[in-house]
Structure prediction request, 152 residues.
Amino acid sequence: MAVKSLLLLMVCFFAGALMPMQAGVNFKLAKAINNNIIGAALISFIIGTTVLACYVLFTNQLKFNVITVAKTQPYWIWMGGILGAFFVAATTLIVPKIGSSLAFSSIIAGQLFISVIIDHYGLLGVPITPINIKKIAGIILLGIAIWIIKEN
Prediction:
């Protein structure tokens, strides 16, 4: 495996490791503000948006015209924030009820399942990577892992 590929996998692993931490932090925040899950998600997004805005401004990343992009690209490219908001709110609500390991193994299963479909059909502009028996086996093994975690 090339060093660049290994580095990218390590970044993905680190990003994945942060997700359960985010859910726990947001749950603790929700408890601190009268069990307000949506309020905690909103605060999380405001802080994240502020950090990103500062980064973009200080690194001069705004080199595009929003109106031109809106006119020339599909409407759904703007919906990532909605998907993220659902994810943050859902994990903040669910992790305390079923535990981090079961919640995130189920999340990973959902991500893997949809990722295989997206890759196979080249949806959302990603390169086509056909489904194969190894990917199917990985999904099945992940399903077995979830069952083992749930039965624990």
